[in-house]
């Protein structure tokens, strides 16, 4: 844990470190195109927005666990999307899933204080590690296998014995890979370790159908879902968790005492969004088209291989040799060198891979979340000039 003589000192928020890159990217005509954070840009469905204004739920305190209508809608969506039957009583609301991710270890450690280890992907969304730190726990990173997905066999028995929780994230942020969730749940059940599955990108699974850890049963596991990505509702902070009835009951009771409540109008809107699948079909098509367009343009501009993700709306781009070499010469990561080159060449603000853990320094993450006209602007810049230092344009394209 980071401490000072006065106590805990929060580390710098990663994305606050992008000011210099933002200034570089903004020098081009047309300005910066922010591809650093997975912030949805497309409009949510009209009926969802209307429900925010017309629910009448703003007058009283909302149910911390979530309204009956919200939990019913979440249960119905999981049945349609994953083929799992979850009783609405085993569903509870959360104030956006980042809040849940950052607080879950703390609450679980109150129940099991003798365990002090949070297992999480080694290259990951930083809130898993921050949640461990806030709980006074150690984080042990679980690497990916060569084929993608967590290498559960790499977890030592000593760490497993101390584990408070195992976080899995599929499709993964930032890598876009898929984890065998059935196997992860079985691993946790065999060792008495709760497995929490962050499934906020499940609707954007490109390789095969989406999956949930609940498909192998709820015992010892929770699935965590957000409407931020699925329905372009990041600004209203709506999510839910579902699964093991005992875990849901325990966490929802603690959260009730902490005053954690999704606002009533937001709960009403979330129920409407979960009942509608058509807008998600349209959103999937938008993200898939943007991913393919930008990946192709980056390859044409000199990044010879830009892997398409198995899921999610991020490009996890390997740092090329020239950027790695320059970084070594300058005493910094090649991910920052590549991020600067993309800012200079195309006005792109992207995230250096180190934001997602030390093992991420060999990549940059590009969030393909801007409107089509802004993506087209980036593509045009790349096609016009290539990437400085990257060997220019690749004549044959992909």
The CATH class of the largest domain turns out to be Alpha Beta
CATH superfamily of the largest domain: Type I PLP-dependent aspartate aminotransferase-like (Major domain)
Q: Classify the secondary structure makeup into a structural class.
A: alpha/beta
Helix share of residues?
25-40%
Gyration radius over CA:
21 Å
- Runs in which pLDDT lies below 50 for 5 or more consecutive residues are 391-398
Shape annotation: globular
Strand content: 5-15%
Number of strands: 14
Strand-helix topology:
Layout: E1 3-4, E2 7-8, H1 19-25, E3 33-34, H2 46-54, H3 68-82, E4 91-94, H4 97-111, E5 117-121, H5 127-134, E6 138-142, H6 157-162, E7 163-169, H7 181-191, E8 195-198, E9 221-226, H8 227-230, E10 239-243, H9 245-257, H10 264-274, H11 278-300, E11 314-318, H12 321-330, H13 334-346, E12 348-349, E13 351-352, E14 363-367, H14 372-385
Parallel strand pairs: 3-12, 5-6, 5-7, 7-8, 8-9
Antiparallel strand pairs: 1-2, 4-10, 9-10, 11-14, 13-14
Helix pairs in contact: 1-13, 2-10, 3-10, 4-5, 11-14, 12-13
Question: Brief overview, please?
Answer:
This protein folds into 2 domains: 3-43 and 279-385, Alpha-Beta Complex (Aspartate Aminotransferase, domain 1), CATH 3.90.1150; 46-276, Type I PLP-dependent aspartate aminotransferase-like (Major domain) (Aspartate Aminotransferase, domain 2, 3-Layer(aba) Sandwich), CATH 3.40.640.
Task: Give an overview of the whole structure.
The chain has 398 residues and is α/β, with parallel strands linked by helices. The chain folds into two domains: 3-43 and 279-385, Alpha-Beta Complex (Aspartate Aminotransferase, domain 1); 46-276, Type I PLP-dependent aspartate aminotransferase-like (Major domain) (Aspartate Aminotransferase, domain 2, 3-Layer(aba) Sandwich). The protein has helices spanning 19-25, 46-54, 68-82, 97-111, 127-134, 157-162, 181-191, 227-230, 245-257, 264-274, 278-300, 321-330, 334-346, 372-385, and strands at 3-4, 7-8, 33-34, 91-94, 117-121, 138-142, 163-169, 195-198, 221-226, 239-243, 314-318, 348-349, 351-352, 363-367. Strands 4-10-9-8-7-5-6 form a seven-stranded mixed beta sheet, with helices on both faces. The protein has a three-stranded antiparallel beta sheet with strand order 11-14-13. Strand 5, helix 5 and strand 6 form a beta-alpha-beta unit. Helix 2 runs antiparallel to helix 10. The longest helix is centred in the last third of the chain and has 23 residues, at 278-300. Residues 391-398 have low confidence and may be disordered.
